[in-house]
Amino acid sequence: MSDTRIAIVLGTRPEIIKLSPILRVCDRRDVPYTLVHTGQHYSDELDSVFFERLGLPEPDYHLGVGSGTHGAQTAEMLTGIEEIVTEEDIDVVVVQGDTNSVLAGAIATSKLDAELGHVEAGLRSFDREMPEEINRILTDHAGDHLFAPTEESADLLRDEGIDESRIYVTGNTIVDAVEANRALAAEKSTVLDEYDLTAGGFILMTAHRAENVDDRDRLVNILTGIDRIASELDQPVVYPIHPRTRERIEEFDISVPETIRLIEPLDFLDFLRLEDTASLVVTDSGGVQEETCILQTPCVTVRDSTERPETVSVGANTVVGTTPGDIVDGARAQLSKPTDWDAPFGDGNAAERILDIVLPSHTENKR
Ligand code: UD1
Ligand code: UDP
Protein backbone atom coordinates (compact mmCIF):
# COMPACT_ATOMS: atom_id res chain seq x y z
CA MET A 1 0.00 0.00 0.00
CA SER A 2 1.28 3.49 -0.88
CA ASP A 3 2.10 5.91 1.93
CA THR A 4 1.33 8.91 -0.28
CA ARG A 5 -1.22 11.15 1.40
CA ILE A 6 -3.85 12.21 -1.14
CA ALA A 7 -6.49 14.91 -0.78
CA ILE A 8 -9.33 15.01 -3.28
CA VAL A 9 -11.05 18.39 -3.51
CA LEU A 10 -14.51 18.86 -5.00
CA GLY A 11 -17.29 21.41 -4.74
CA THR A 12 -19.85 21.18 -7.54
CA ARG A 13 -22.11 18.66 -9.29
CA PRO A 14 -19.79 17.84 -12.22
CA GLU A 15 -16.79 17.40 -9.92
CA ILE A 16 -18.67 14.94 -7.71
CA ILE A 17 -19.67 12.91 -10.79
CA LYS A 18 -16.28 12.98 -12.53
CA LEU A 19 -14.24 12.30 -9.40
CA SER A 20 -16.49 9.41 -8.31
CA PRO A 21 -14.52 6.86 -10.41
CA ILE A 22 -11.29 7.93 -8.67
CA LEU A 23 -12.86 7.52 -5.23
CA ARG A 24 -14.08 4.09 -6.29
CA VAL A 25 -10.63 2.98 -7.46
CA CYS A 26 -9.07 4.30 -4.23
CA ASP A 27 -11.50 2.16 -2.26
CA ARG A 28 -10.85 -0.89 -4.43
CA ARG A 29 -7.08 -0.50 -4.04
CA ASP A 30 -7.36 0.29 -0.36
CA VAL A 31 -5.77 3.72 -0.85
CA PRO A 32 -6.74 6.10 1.94
CA TYR A 33 -7.63 9.68 0.99
CA THR A 34 -8.88 12.90 2.52
CA LEU A 35 -12.05 14.12 0.83
CA VAL A 36 -12.58 17.89 0.95
CA HIS A 37 -15.88 19.49 -0.10
CA THR A 38 -15.69 23.25 -0.60
CA GLY A 39 -19.46 23.69 -0.38
CA GLN A 40 -19.65 25.67 -3.65
CA HIS A 41 -22.77 23.62 -4.42
CA TYR A 42 -24.93 22.98 -1.37
CA SER A 43 -28.55 22.49 -2.52
CA ASP A 44 -29.44 18.81 -2.10
CA GLU A 45 -30.25 18.38 -5.79
CA LEU A 46 -26.78 19.63 -6.84
CA ASP A 47 -24.88 17.96 -4.03
CA SER A 48 -26.02 15.32 -1.52
CA VAL A 49 -28.19 13.49 -4.06
CA PHE A 50 -25.00 12.56 -5.96
CA PHE A 51 -23.22 11.30 -2.85
CA GLU A 52 -26.24 9.11 -2.10
CA ARG A 53 -26.88 7.76 -5.62
CA LEU A 54 -23.19 7.16 -6.36
CA GLY A 55 -22.53 5.60 -2.93
CA LEU A 56 -19.78 8.07 -2.04
CA PRO A 57 -18.46 8.60 1.50
CA GLU A 58 -19.17 11.70 3.55
CA PRO A 59 -16.43 14.31 3.00
CA ASP A 60 -13.79 14.40 5.76
CA TYR A 61 -13.91 18.19 5.62
CA HIS A 62 -16.75 20.44 4.52
CA LEU A 63 -15.76 24.09 4.09
CA GLY A 64 -19.37 25.26 3.70
CA VAL A 65 -18.36 28.19 1.52
CA GLY A 66 -21.61 28.54 -0.46
CA SER A 67 -22.35 31.17 -3.09
CA GLY A 68 -20.68 34.57 -3.37
CA THR A 69 -18.64 36.79 -5.65
CA HIS A 70 -15.86 34.95 -7.44
CA GLY A 71 -13.17 36.58 -5.33
CA ALA A 72 -14.82 36.06 -1.95
CA GLN A 73 -15.82 32.48 -2.77
CA THR A 74 -12.38 31.51 -4.10
CA ALA A 75 -10.57 33.21 -1.22
CA GLU A 76 -12.56 31.40 1.45
CA MET A 77 -11.99 28.05 -0.22
CA LEU A 78 -8.29 28.78 -0.64
CA THR A 79 -7.81 29.50 3.06
CA GLY A 80 -9.71 26.37 4.06
CA ILE A 81 -7.83 24.09 1.66
CA GLU A 82 -4.46 25.52 2.74
CA GLU A 83 -5.21 24.68 6.37
CA ILE A 84 -6.25 21.12 5.58
CA VAL A 85 -3.31 20.35 3.28
CA THR A 86 -0.92 21.69 5.92
CA GLU A 87 -2.52 20.02 8.94
CA GLU A 88 -2.97 16.67 7.22
CA ASP A 89 0.54 16.80 5.70
CA ILE A 90 -0.93 16.04 2.27
CA ASP A 91 1.48 14.99 -0.52
CA VAL A 92 -0.83 15.23 -3.55
CA VAL A 93 -4.00 17.27 -4.07
CA VAL A 94 -6.31 16.16 -6.89
CA VAL A 95 -8.78 18.59 -8.47
CA GLN A 96 -11.06 18.12 -11.50
CA GLY A 97 -12.30 20.55 -14.12
CA ASP A 98 -12.59 24.33 -14.17
CA THR A 99 -14.72 25.67 -11.34
CA ASN A 100 -13.74 28.17 -8.65
CA SER A 101 -13.24 25.19 -6.29
CA VAL A 102 -10.57 23.90 -8.70
CA LEU A 103 -8.79 27.24 -8.87
CA ALA A 104 -8.77 27.51 -5.06
CA GLY A 105 -7.31 23.99 -4.76
CA ALA A 106 -4.69 24.83 -7.36
CA ILE A 107 -3.52 28.08 -5.82
CA ALA A 108 -3.48 26.70 -2.26
CA THR A 109 -1.50 23.62 -3.30
CA SER A 110 1.00 25.44 -5.50
CA LYS A 111 2.14 27.53 -2.51
CA LEU A 112 2.68 24.49 -0.29
CA ASP A 113 4.98 21.47 -0.25
CA ALA A 114 2.42 19.32 -2.09
CA GLU A 115 1.90 18.28 -5.68
CA LEU A 116 -1.17 19.17 -7.72
CA GLY A 117 -2.93 16.72 -10.03
CA HIS A 118 -5.42 18.24 -12.49
CA VAL A 119 -8.01 15.87 -13.91
CA GLU A 120 -9.39 17.09 -17.28
CA ALA A 121 -6.37 19.25 -18.08
CA GLY A 122 -5.75 21.02 -21.38
CA LEU A 123 -9.33 22.00 -22.28
CA ARG A 124 -9.55 25.43 -23.91
CA SER A 125 -12.53 27.34 -25.30
CA PHE A 126 -10.25 30.28 -26.24
CA ASP A 127 -12.94 32.53 -24.76
CA ARG A 128 -11.27 34.40 -21.95
CA GLU A 129 -14.58 36.03 -20.95
CA MET A 130 -15.58 32.70 -19.38
CA PRO A 131 -14.52 32.37 -15.73
CA GLU A 132 -13.96 28.66 -16.39
CA GLU A 133 -11.36 29.41 -19.09
CA ILE A 134 -9.24 31.45 -16.67
CA ASN A 135 -9.62 28.76 -14.00
CA ARG A 136 -8.43 26.05 -16.44
CA ILE A 137 -5.41 27.98 -17.66
CA LEU A 138 -4.24 28.94 -14.17
CA THR A 139 -4.77 25.44 -12.82
CA ASP A 140 -2.88 23.78 -15.68
CA HIS A 141 0.05 26.14 -15.25
CA ALA A 142 0.13 25.52 -11.48
CA GLY A 143 -0.23 21.74 -11.85
CA ASP A 144 2.43 19.03 -11.50
CA HIS A 145 0.45 16.17 -13.08
CA LEU A 146 -1.87 17.19 -15.92
CA PHE A 147 -4.34 14.47 -16.88
CA ALA A 148 -5.42 15.37 -20.41
CA PRO A 149 -8.45 13.44 -21.67
CA THR A 150 -7.29 13.36 -25.31
CA GLU A 151 -4.17 13.91 -27.45
CA GLU A 152 -5.76 17.17 -28.64
CA SER A 153 -5.92 18.55 -25.11
CA ALA A 154 -2.34 17.37 -24.45
CA ASP A 155 -1.25 19.28 -27.59
CA LEU A 156 -2.91 22.45 -26.28
CA LEU A 157 -0.83 22.15 -23.10
CA ARG A 158 2.34 21.64 -25.17
CA ASP A 159 1.42 24.72 -27.25
CA GLU A 160 1.43 26.75 -24.01
CA GLY A 161 4.99 25.63 -23.27
CA ILE A 162 4.09 23.16 -20.51
CA ASP A 163 6.83 20.56 -20.07
CA GLU A 164 6.15 17.11 -21.49
CA SER A 165 7.05 15.51 -18.14
CA ARG A 166 3.87 17.01 -16.59
CA ILE A 167 1.46 15.82 -19.31
CA TYR A 168 -0.37 12.46 -19.38
CA VAL A 169 -3.15 11.38 -21.75
CA THR A 170 -5.49 9.33 -19.57
CA GLY A 171 -8.94 9.59 -21.13
CA ASN A 172 -11.76 11.36 -19.30
CA THR A 173 -13.14 9.89 -16.05
CA ILE A 174 -16.65 10.65 -17.36
CA VAL A 175 -16.35 7.53 -19.52
CA ASP A 176 -15.65 5.50 -16.37
CA ALA A 177 -18.67 7.11 -14.68
CA VAL A 178 -21.00 6.53 -17.64
CA GLU A 179 -19.89 2.90 -18.00
CA ALA A 180 -20.42 2.29 -14.29
CA ASN A 181 -23.93 3.75 -14.31
CA ARG A 182 -25.52 3.41 -17.76
CA ALA A 183 -26.92 -0.10 -17.35
CA LEU A 184 -27.88 0.65 -13.75
CA ALA A 185 -29.81 3.70 -14.95
CA ALA A 186 -31.65 1.63 -17.59
CA GLU A 187 -32.56 -0.92 -14.94
CA LYS A 188 -33.40 1.33 -11.97
CA SER A 189 -34.48 4.73 -13.24
CA THR A 190 -38.21 5.34 -13.58
CA VAL A 191 -37.74 8.85 -14.92
CA LEU A 192 -39.41 8.20 -18.31
CA ASP A 193 -42.61 7.00 -16.65
CA GLU A 194 -42.47 9.72 -14.03
CA TYR A 195 -42.51 12.46 -16.67
CA ASP A 196 -44.63 10.54 -19.19
CA LEU A 197 -41.87 10.42 -21.81
CA THR A 198 -41.15 7.81 -24.47
CA ALA A 199 -37.66 6.82 -25.59
CA GLY A 200 -36.81 8.69 -28.79
CA GLY A 201 -39.84 10.95 -28.38
CA PHE A 202 -38.53 13.97 -26.46
CA ILE A 203 -35.81 16.62 -26.41
CA LEU A 204 -33.65 17.13 -23.32
CA MET A 205 -32.18 20.54 -22.57
CA THR A 206 -29.90 22.10 -19.98
CA ALA A 207 -28.66 25.70 -19.75
CA HIS A 208 -26.80 27.21 -16.82
CA ARG A 209 -23.67 29.00 -18.14
CA ALA A 210 -23.36 32.50 -16.69
CA GLU A 211 -22.75 34.07 -20.13
CA ASN A 212 -26.05 32.58 -21.39
CA VAL A 213 -28.48 32.76 -18.52
CA ASP A 214 -27.36 36.01 -16.86
CA ASP A 215 -28.14 37.81 -20.13
CA ARG A 216 -31.90 38.18 -20.68
CA ASP A 217 -31.72 38.34 -24.49
CA ARG A 218 -29.51 35.27 -24.81
CA LEU A 219 -31.70 33.27 -22.43
CA VAL A 220 -34.91 34.24 -24.29
CA ASN A 221 -33.24 33.40 -27.62
CA ILE A 222 -32.22 29.94 -26.39
CA LEU A 223 -35.75 29.19 -25.15
CA THR A 224 -37.24 30.50 -28.41
CA GLY A 225 -34.91 28.40 -30.58
CA ILE A 226 -35.62 25.25 -28.61
CA ASP A 227 -39.36 25.92 -28.70
CA ARG A 228 -39.14 26.07 -32.51
CA ILE A 229 -37.29 22.74 -32.70
CA ALA A 230 -39.91 21.20 -30.40
CA SER A 231 -42.71 22.40 -32.71
CA GLU A 232 -40.88 21.18 -35.81
CA LEU A 233 -40.24 17.71 -34.34
CA ASP A 234 -43.57 17.69 -32.52
CA GLN A 235 -41.81 16.55 -29.36
CA PRO A 236 -41.87 17.96 -25.82
CA VAL A 237 -38.76 19.42 -24.20
CA VAL A 238 -37.79 18.42 -20.68
CA TYR A 239 -35.53 20.86 -18.85
CA PRO A 240 -34.06 19.96 -15.43
CA ILE A 241 -33.29 23.52 -14.47
CA HIS A 242 -30.19 24.69 -12.61
CA PRO A 243 -31.06 27.01 -9.67
CA ARG A 244 -29.06 29.83 -11.25
CA THR A 245 -31.29 29.76 -14.35
CA ARG A 246 -34.50 29.44 -12.33
CA GLU A 247 -33.54 32.59 -10.42
CA ARG A 248 -32.84 34.47 -13.65
CA ILE A 249 -36.12 33.42 -15.27
CA GLU A 250 -37.95 34.84 -12.26
CA GLU A 251 -35.81 37.98 -12.05
CA PHE A 252 -36.14 38.72 -15.80
CA ASP A 253 -39.86 37.82 -15.74
CA ILE A 254 -39.48 35.49 -18.72
CA SER A 255 -42.44 33.36 -19.75
CA VAL A 256 -41.18 29.93 -20.72
CA PRO A 257 -42.79 28.46 -23.89
CA GLU A 258 -45.36 25.73 -23.23
CA THR A 259 -43.36 23.10 -25.13
CA ILE A 260 -40.61 23.36 -22.49
CA ARG A 261 -41.30 21.57 -19.24
CA LEU A 262 -39.22 22.81 -16.32
CA ILE A 263 -38.40 20.14 -13.75
CA GLU A 264 -36.07 20.03 -10.74
CA PRO A 265 -32.43 19.02 -11.36
CA LEU A 266 -32.17 15.22 -11.54
CA ASP A 267 -29.81 12.77 -9.90
CA PHE A 268 -27.15 11.22 -12.13
CA LEU A 269 -29.00 7.98 -12.91
CA ASP A 270 -32.20 9.72 -13.96
CA PHE A 271 -30.33 12.32 -15.98
CA LEU A 272 -28.19 9.69 -17.68
CA ARG A 273 -31.35 7.77 -18.58
CA LEU A 274 -32.81 10.88 -20.23
CA GLU A 275 -29.57 11.56 -22.12
CA ASP A 276 -29.53 7.95 -23.29
CA THR A 277 -33.10 8.01 -24.60
CA ALA A 278 -33.64 11.59 -25.86
CA SER A 279 -33.97 12.17 -29.60
CA LEU A 280 -31.82 15.29 -29.23
CA VAL A 281 -30.02 17.11 -26.42
CA VAL A 282 -29.59 20.89 -26.46
CA THR A 283 -27.16 22.18 -23.85
CA ASP A 284 -24.49 24.64 -22.77
CA SER A 285 -22.98 22.16 -20.31
CA GLY A 286 -19.47 20.80 -20.73
CA GLY A 287 -20.18 17.41 -19.20
CA VAL A 288 -23.38 16.95 -21.19
CA GLN A 289 -21.50 17.45 -24.49
CA GLU A 290 -19.20 14.59 -23.47
CA GLU A 291 -21.90 12.26 -22.16
CA THR A 292 -24.11 12.59 -25.25
CA CYS A 293 -21.06 11.81 -27.38
CA ILE A 294 -20.39 8.68 -25.31
CA LEU A 295 -24.08 7.64 -25.44
CA GLN A 296 -24.45 8.22 -29.24
CA THR A 297 -27.15 10.85 -28.71
CA PRO A 298 -27.10 13.89 -31.06
CA CYS A 299 -26.15 17.13 -29.29
CA VAL A 300 -26.56 20.81 -30.12
CA THR A 301 -24.50 23.23 -28.05
CA VAL A 302 -25.94 26.70 -27.48
CA ARG A 303 -22.64 28.51 -27.04
CA ASP A 304 -20.24 30.46 -29.24
CA SER A 305 -17.35 28.09 -28.54
CA THR A 306 -16.56 24.71 -27.02
CA GLU A 307 -13.60 23.33 -25.11
CA ARG A 308 -14.71 19.87 -26.29
CA PRO A 309 -14.01 20.22 -30.07
CA GLU A 310 -13.50 16.45 -30.32
CA THR A 311 -17.28 16.03 -29.97
CA VAL A 312 -17.77 18.24 -33.04
CA SER A 313 -15.06 16.61 -35.16
CA VAL A 314 -16.46 13.09 -34.62
CA GLY A 315 -19.91 14.35 -35.68
CA ALA A 316 -21.69 14.11 -32.31
CA ASN A 317 -22.18 17.80 -31.59
CA THR A 318 -22.93 21.05 -33.43
CA VAL A 319 -22.03 24.39 -31.81
CA VAL A 320 -24.68 26.90 -32.89
CA GLY A 321 -24.50 30.05 -30.77
CA THR A 322 -27.75 31.40 -29.33
CA THR A 323 -29.85 32.92 -32.11
CA PRO A 324 -33.13 31.02 -32.65
CA GLY A 325 -32.59 30.55 -36.40
CA ASP A 326 -29.10 29.10 -35.88
CA ILE A 327 -30.36 26.79 -33.14
CA VAL A 328 -33.03 25.39 -35.47
CA ASP A 329 -30.62 25.05 -38.43
CA GLY A 330 -28.02 23.40 -36.18
CA ALA A 331 -30.56 20.91 -34.83
CA ARG A 332 -31.67 19.98 -38.35
CA ALA A 333 -28.05 19.52 -39.44
CA GLN A 334 -27.13 17.44 -36.38
CA LEU A 335 -30.22 15.23 -36.70
CA SER A 336 -29.41 14.49 -40.34
CA LYS A 337 -26.04 12.94 -39.39
CA PRO A 338 -25.46 9.27 -38.60
CA THR A 339 -25.01 8.45 -34.91
CA ASP A 340 -22.29 5.82 -35.27
CA TRP A 341 -19.35 8.06 -34.34
CA ASP A 342 -16.47 6.82 -32.17
CA ALA A 343 -16.36 8.61 -28.83
CA PRO A 344 -12.91 10.14 -28.30
CA PHE A 345 -12.70 10.27 -24.49
CA GLY A 346 -10.99 6.99 -23.67
CA ASP A 347 -11.70 3.41 -22.66
CA GLY A 348 -13.22 3.83 -19.19
CA ASN A 349 -9.96 3.27 -17.31
CA ALA A 350 -8.97 6.90 -16.78
CA ALA A 351 -9.29 6.72 -12.99
CA GLU A 352 -6.98 3.67 -12.81
CA ARG A 353 -4.39 5.45 -14.95
CA ILE A 354 -4.58 8.64 -12.91
CA LEU A 355 -3.96 6.79 -9.65
CA ASP A 356 -1.08 4.83 -11.20
CA ILE A 357 0.54 8.16 -12.01
CA VAL A 358 -0.23 9.97 -8.76
CA LEU A 359 0.93 7.23 -6.41
CA PRO A 360 4.34 6.10 -7.74
CA SER A 361 5.40 9.56 -8.86
CA HIS A 362 5.23 10.89 -5.36
CA THR A 363 7.02 7.91 -3.87
CA GLU A 364 9.83 8.28 -6.43
CA ASN A 365 10.15 12.03 -5.88
CA LYS A 366 10.52 11.51 -2.14
CA ARG A 367 13.27 8.95 -2.48
C1 UD1 B 1 -20.56 26.51 -11.25
C2 UD1 B 1 -19.26 26.65 -12.06
C3 UD1 B 1 -19.52 26.20 -13.49
C4 UD1 B 1 -20.09 24.81 -13.52
C5 UD1 B 1 -21.34 24.72 -12.63
C6 UD1 B 1 -21.81 23.30 -12.56
C7 UD1 B 1 -17.71 28.46 -11.47
C8 UD1 B 1 -17.24 29.83 -11.80
N1 UD1 B 1 -18.84 28.05 -12.09
O1 UD1 B 1 -21.53 27.37 -11.84
O2 UD1 B 1 -18.29 26.19 -14.19
O3 UD1 B 1 -20.45 24.50 -14.85
O4 UD1 B 1 -21.01 25.16 -11.32
O5 UD1 B 1 -23.17 23.21 -12.28
O6 UD1 B 1 -17.10 27.80 -10.66
N2 UD1 B 1 -26.99 27.96 -6.35
C9 UD1 B 1 -27.94 27.29 -5.63
N3 UD1 B 1 -27.58 26.13 -5.00
C10 UD1 B 1 -26.33 25.65 -5.05
C11 UD1 B 1 -25.36 26.33 -5.79
C12 UD1 B 1 -25.71 27.50 -6.43
O7 UD1 B 1 -29.10 27.71 -5.54
O8 UD1 B 1 -26.08 24.57 -4.47
C13 UD1 B 1 -27.37 29.21 -7.05
C14 UD1 B 1 -27.02 30.44 -6.25
O9 UD1 B 1 -27.98 31.42 -6.52
C15 UD1 B 1 -25.69 30.88 -6.87
C16 UD1 B 1 -25.86 30.46 -8.32
O10 UD1 B 1 -26.64 29.26 -8.28
O11 UD1 B 1 -25.45 32.25 -6.73
C17 UD1 B 1 -24.55 30.20 -9.01
O12 UD1 B 1 -23.75 29.26 -8.29
P1 UD1 B 1 -22.16 29.18 -8.53
O13 UD1 B 1 -21.59 28.03 -7.81
O14 UD1 B 1 -21.55 30.52 -8.34
O15 UD1 B 1 -22.05 28.92 -10.08
P2 UD1 B 1 -22.78 27.87 -11.00
O16 UD1 B 1 -23.63 28.63 -11.97
O17 UD1 B 1 -23.39 26.79 -10.21
N1 UDP C 1 -26.49 16.38 -14.47
C1 UDP C 1 -27.31 15.69 -13.57
N2 UDP C 1 -28.59 16.14 -13.40
C2 UDP C 1 -29.10 17.21 -14.06
C3 UDP C 1 -28.25 17.91 -14.97
C4 UDP C 1 -26.96 17.47 -15.15
O1 UDP C 1 -26.89 14.70 -12.98
O2 UDP C 1 -30.26 17.55 -13.85
C5 UDP C 1 -25.09 15.93 -14.63
C6 UDP C 1 -24.69 15.57 -16.03
O3 UDP C 1 -24.95 14.20 -16.29
C7 UDP C 1 -23.21 15.89 -16.06
C8 UDP C 1 -23.08 17.00 -15.05
O4 UDP C 1 -24.26 17.02 -14.30
O5 UDP C 1 -22.43 14.79 -15.59
C9 UDP C 1 -22.87 18.30 -15.76
O6 UDP C 1 -22.93 19.33 -14.85
P1 UDP C 1 -23.18 20.83 -15.27
O7 UDP C 1 -23.88 20.90 -16.58
O8 UDP C 1 -23.83 21.49 -14.10
O9 UDP C 1 -21.70 21.42 -15.33
P2 UDP C 1 -20.59 21.48 -16.48
O10 UDP C 1 -20.30 20.12 -16.96
O11 UDP C 1 -21.10 22.39 -17.55
O12 UDP C 1 -19.43 22.12 -15.76
Polypeptide structure, described:
- This protein has 367 residues and is α/β, with parallel strands linked by helices.
- It folds into two domains: 187 residues, Rossmann fold; 155 residues, Glycogen Phosphorylase B (Rossmann fold), CATH 3.40.50.
- 48% of the residues lie in helices and 14% in strands.
- It is built from 16 helices and 13 strands.
- Strands 3-2-1-4-5-6-7 form a seven-stranded parallel sheet, sandwiched between helices. A six-stranded parallel sheet has the order 10-9-8-11-12-13, with helices on both faces.
- Helix 6 links the parallel strand 6 and strand 7.
- Helix 1 crosses helix 16.
- The radius of gyration is 20 Å and the shape is globular.
- The site of uridine-diphosphate-N-acetylglucosamine has 19 residues, from helix 1, helix 5 and helix 11.
Throw out a few tags for this protein.
Rossmann fold; six-stranded parallel β-sheet; 367 residues; disordered C terminus; binds uridine-5'-diphosphate; alpha/beta; 2 domains; globular; 16 helices; binds uridine-diphosphate-N-acetylglucosamine
Mean pLDDT across all amino acids: 97
Helix content class: 40-55%
Largest sheet: 7 strands, parallel
What is the assigned CATH homologous superfamily of the largest domain?
Answer: Glycogen Phosphorylase B
Strands, total number: 13
Q: What's the shape?
A: globular
CATH topology of the largest domain: Rossmann fold
Order of helices and strands: EHEHEHEHEHEHEHHEHHEHEHEHEHEHH
Radius of gyration: 20 Å
CATH architecture of the largest domain: 3-Layer(aba) Sandwich
Number of helices: 16
